[in-house]
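Incident log, structure service

09:12 report received: a user says their structure output differs between two submissions of the same chain.
09:20 pulled the input from the user's history:
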Amino acid sequence: MQGVYFYPVLSRVHWRAAPTLVVYKDTHPLGRYSRQKELKEREEDYQWHVYAQGIPHCMKAANTESLPLEVHFSFTKNTEFLFTAKQGLTELKLSVQGGVTEKWTDMDSIYRAFSSKITDISDYVQKHWKEDEFFAYQFLNGVNPMLIQRCSVIPKNFPVTDCMAFLHGQRSLKEELKNGNIYLCDYKLLDGVEANTINKKKQYLMAPLILLYKTPDDKLMPVAIQLKQTPGKDNPIFLPTDSEYDWLMAKLFVRSADFQFHQLSVHLLRTHLLAEVFAVSLLRNVPMVHPLYKLLIPHTRYTLQINLMARNLLISKDGVFAKYAACGGEGVSTILRKTMESMTYSSLCIPDDIAERGLKDVPNYYYRDDGLQLWDIIHKFVHGILSYYYKSDADVKKDSELQKWISDIFVHGFLSNKKTGIPQGFTTVAALVKFVTMVIFTCSVQHSAVNAGQFDYGAWMPNTPVSLQLPPPTTKGTTSEATMLETFPDVNVTVQGMSIMHLLSTQSSDFVPLGQYPDEHFFEEIPCKLIKRFQGDLEIQSVTIKVRNELLDFPYTYMQPTVVENSVAI
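09:34 re-ran on a clean worker, output below:
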């Protein structure tokens, strides 16, 4: 059989059984022709589209029917997703409240709505949402662990003084800053965002600053909150020593701001929209016999369809956000554009991000602990696979398909902005390995970390209000429980928010966990062994997390490999 070249050309489906070949080693005329033919077809099937100026480009498709069949939901996935979407309020036993545009009159009514479906974590949230320790904990291990940073200098627009900040012991704020015990959460990205109008009522969205302190017993506690970016007499700095409802209302506005920031910046753009860019560029520029395609295609499963549905149903002009979220309407595009303007490559790589935010040694930061371990496991796997096919930096440089993949990502995903630090091409194996590690991590681990807990933390509305309909207090001593009830979102806004968070947190029965590959792509001995080793490393990490969680009162499970999906599929 020497001299005979086996290369399937009849159907894309059959390419999976083909040998793995980079373009510069595919010297047979038939192989070259087949690569070019496939990519020409894919360029037609997967076209770039500008959904809105200033945000990553997406795939051009009017509806799910216009998507190529190979990227459709399975029958199981489609049936379950549509059922959950349509039956959301019914399953939560909230169908009646879904049309009520009135305000909540008492906390018991909110609890009755909440109690229709309770998880272990949502039950904990409902019991502890008022506590300062739990409020601070969510900046580390809630659905948005991406904002908190170590503070070495108090921002000039946040004039907290020693007499305001109650710190344990005799140390001053300046000393604790120097000791590295002060942390900051700054929602400046939300400054100037126009709040929505819901049920014909103006809504309110703040851009708060929060100062936190690590106590001697390693607890993180809030010590000051300012709800707007510009200091002034009508913008008081709220403190834990204020009246119960002054302080609680300040935290309420922070939690509502966090919902908007998390949904659009942390969740939608930094996982969903980037995952689509990675996928479309892969499908347009890399043929199925390429090692990069075989490595990454499992991490694109269902992403194109779920994102198309998100654009049509969630962030469109008449979508869920426009109807029920404080950031709906113009706010959506504003927040997405601002996120793009400030996003960097290093912020997408968890080792770099943790270092830049100064969080290497903050205690009880399980997002960091689990994330760094999983990054290392993925990096080891990616390095093994890619270094098997690319023996030198010169091999990387001469792979034209690989270079076109990253070039398209730079142009269409990061809008040719050099300040992001995103590579425009690859010149070394190490740079390639790091970027591909980031892609897999973003599409799997990071998405799970910022998505899976939405219903857990958001089912109890006072912990995560999707909108607020009174402005924050401008003077202290004017609030009460009645003020809080007046400020909460209307009944229908509350239950619709619960429904969408339930939908986005519900896995389908054909869920594929990280590192599992039901569709085989690699057939060479070494890559297959590397996959087995990858799966073994993930199993060890799963046990490590399980043992750690058994010792915690409040377990952190969102980066447990067995619950992390391979791709952005929900």
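09:41 both user submissions now match this output. Likely a transient worker issue. Closing.
09:42 reviewer note: DSSP finds 22 helices and nine strands in the chain. The two ends are 47 Å apart (CA to CA).
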